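Posting this for the archive.
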Amino acid sequence: MSYMPEETPRPSNAGRWIVLGCAGILVIFICSAGLAAALLPRLIPMLQQTSGAGQQPTIGVPQQIATALIQRTPTRAQEVATPIPAASSPANPTPGAGQAATSTVARPPAQATSPARPSPRSSVVIIQPTSGAPSIDSSLKVSQDERPKTAPTPFPAVSPAAISPEEQVLQRLYQKVNPSVVNIDVLISGAGLGGQDSLQPASASGFVISKEGHIVTNNHVVDGAQQIRVTFADGYQVNAKVMGVDPDSDLAVIKVNGVPADSLVPVAMGDSSQVKPGQKVVAIGNPFAYAGSMTFGIISAVGRTIPSGLSQFSIPLVIQTDAPINPGNSGGPLVDLDGRVVGVNAQIRSDTARANSGVGFAIPSNIVKLVAPDLITKGQHDWAWLGLQGTSMNFDLAQANNLPQTTRGAYIDAIVAGGPAAKGGLKGSSGQATVDNRPVPNGGDIIIQIDNQPVNSFDDLLTYVSLNTSPSKQVQLKLWRNGQQTTVTITMEARPRQVQ
């Protein structure tokens, strides 16, 4: 019997295909594992976002969209960044590519723990380029009241009820008074370039006082004017002529003819003696040629005395106000909140420029009521005159004249020769005394009463003479003379135009 060696069996064709299939599966498995490893970092956040199981959402970022998280009342920790809370309902879908939004304030890191509950005060505002409508991430849970608007809320209209009572008063006052206020443009003779005479333009203000076309303004407005043109609030223009001027009070009255009746709206005149410091007033006029300008302020003081500007005499009882008055306001009215004229704006105190610095002066309406009728009827007003110069009593004058420090009155420093005071025997200073190394006049009479009315200052004397006396009227003066009280009678005379 012969022995045959054992041989290894050769594989059939079916076995070969099995081997090749296993190898292919292995290759596919290896490739799939690599691909999964590459995609897994992106798939995990998406799975977290769709699960809604307490993980922070990751929001897509289209380049054309940005969002801002606004915390209206942030805590100290929230001042740096406030995270956007995760959606609490699985019903909210994951935002699509065209709906995604992101916070430009802060992007919170993924947290393993459940985020804090969303604050009811938080809201999301979408900022987007002009093309296309803004989109909001629907996975963000925002209360209905806090949902952002797709269009800005229009600014609410201001109803009359929203305007303060004072504003309503000022508006009604302007509507009442402004039709009475006029602009005055003048051409005044003056030296031009090269010293040659020429007409210089200027502008100011005025106000209507009668249906006959009479207008009050300042004397310095029309002094030297070759032409006067008036423009009314309704735009009507007409030339005017001067009816009369009074340099001592810086007042003038001009007149227009042929003006429609509707353009002539006379003002209501008030009583300037009732004006008190702190009272609110309004100035209306033509400052710097800005027609119909109204400014608002208070009465700063009353009873001021200021120089008239174009005469040697002073104006008493002047009203001081902080209502802004500027060049061009001259001649315009100063009115109370009832729309009554209490003064005529005339001067400002400004040490640095020709502009308001909070100190303006108005001629009192009671002087206007005294002077204007005479300017209309006879072209001038005759003021009564004592013919003396002086000042108010003070500490130094009392000491220099050996009088009690409490002495009040009008000290007479000089007497005008040939005037009423000289004719009545009044005396001015006769010498000087030294007080605190300074010369102080002495020897003059000190007036303490006029017609039984107390005189506490020189302004009191000037006011009484201006408003309560007239030429040819007699007045009684009580005064201190050489340490004794005495009484004298003076007959008033008309004030001269020029005092030598």
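Residues 101 and 137 are 6 Å apart (CA to CA). Helices lie at 13-51, 165-177, 219-222, 365-377, 395-400, 420-423, 458-468.
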